[in-house]
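In response to reviewer comment 3 from the previous cycle, which asked for concrete evidence that the modeling workflow produces usable outputs, we include below a single protein chain processed end to end. The sequence was submitted unchanged, and the resulting C-alpha cells are shown without manual editing.
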Amino acid sequence: HVVITGDDPAAIDAAAEMVTQMLVVIDDEKNVHKQNQLRELALLNGTLKEEEWCHLCGEKGHRNFECPKKFALNNRSVLKVKCAICGDTSHPTRDCSL
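The workflow returned the following C-alpha cells.
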C-alpha cells in the first residue's frame, strides 16, 4: 500500500504516476538497476566473475552448459583448457596462481 499526500491535486497526480511506474514488473534481463545491485553484491561478497569461460571449448562468454559446441564435441574430442604459464589443464591462464 502507498499513501500519497500533497498540497495540490497536480502534485498528487505526479506522485501517483511516479509510484505507478515503479510498480511495473520488469524482466530481470532488462532490469539494469537490479543487475547492477546483484553485481555490486557479488563484488562485496568476493564472488564476482568478470568473464565467464567454457571448460569444453575454451572460449569466453559462456559456461559449459551453454556451450554451442557441446553437442558437436563428443566425449573423445572435448578440448581441454590449458594454462599457458604452468601447462596445467585444471584452469585457464588468467586463473594461474604462479
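The two ends are 56 Å apart (CA to CA). We consider this sufficient to address the reviewer's concern, and the full set will be provided in the supplementary archive.
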